[in-house]
Amino acid sequence: MNGHPVAAGPQAALALFDTSDELVCGVDEAGRGPLAGPVFAAAVIFDPSRPIEGLRDSKKLTAARRDELAILIKRDALAWSIAQCSEAEIDALNILQATMLAMRRAIEGLSVTPTLALIDGNRCPPCLMRAEAIVKGDDKVAEISAASILAKTARDAALMIMHQQYPDYAFDQHKGYPTALHLERLRLHGVSPVHRKSYAPVRALLA
For 41, which DSSP code? Predict the structure, then answer.
C-alpha cells in the first residue's frame, strides 16, 4: 500500500518513501500548545478501494469541513484509532513525551498492525514497526492529514465537554489556547482541575 500524497500544494507529487510494499499508517497530534485539556493523537490506515477526497492539514479546514471528513475517515478507512494523554500525564512527563505517548497509544490502538508509521513532525514515538518523521506531513501525506483531522475533531469535542463542566473559562471559544480571553478568565477564576499546571501562565498563578 502506498503512502498517498495529498492532492494539493507544491508537495503533491513528493515521493517521500518507497512504500509500495508497506501497510502505512499516518499519525498526528492535536493540542500541544493549549493551557488546558489532554493532548490527542490519531492514527489512520487507508483502504485503497475507498479513497477519501478533500484531505489536507486540519488547521486549513473549517470546523464544519473537519467534522464532515472525520465521519468519512471513520467510515471508509481500513483502520483508525484516537488516543490521548491527560493533563496530569503532561505535567508529569512534559508535553513532548506526553505527545509521543499519545501517538504510540494511537498506533497500538489500531485494529490492523501497520508495517510503516508516517509521523507528522520531526520526531517519532517508540514504535514496534518502522517509523519516519515528516515535517509538515499533515499537508504532504493524506494518511497524516486524516490523522490530523481525527485528532483535532476529537480534541474539540472534548473541549466542548470541558466547557460544560467549567463554563467560566470559555473553553468553547478558545479551546484551551492561551488567548487574551483565556488568560483573563484564568486570572479571574483561578486554576481549574483541567489546566496544565506545568505551563508557565498556569504555574505563575499557582506560585
Answer: E
Q: Is residue 204 part of a domain?
A: no
Domain with 41, as residue range(s), is 24-165
Are the beta carbons of 158 and 171 closer than 8 angstroms? no
Q: What is the pLDDT of residues 142-200, one digit of tens each?
A: 999 999 999 999 999 999 999 999 999 999 999 999 999 999 999 999 999 999 999 99
Residue 2 lies in a domain: no
Q: E strands, the chain, where?
A: 24-30, 39-45, 79-85, 116-120, 130-134
Q: Is residue 131 part of a domain?
A: yes
Residue 203's Cβ-count burial label (10 Å; 0-12, 13-18, 19+) is: middle
Q: Which three cell numbers stand for residue 173?
A: 471559544
CATH number of 60's domain: 3.30.420.10
Q: Write the CA distances from 84 to 12, 18, 27, 136, 166, integer angstroms.
A: 30, 30, 13, 21, 20
Q: How many domains does the chain have?
A: 1
The predicted model scores a pTM of 0.90
DSSP conformation class of 4: P
DSSP state of 7: S
39 part of a folded domain? yes
CA–CA separation, 156 vs 31, rounded Å?
9
Residues in the chain: 207
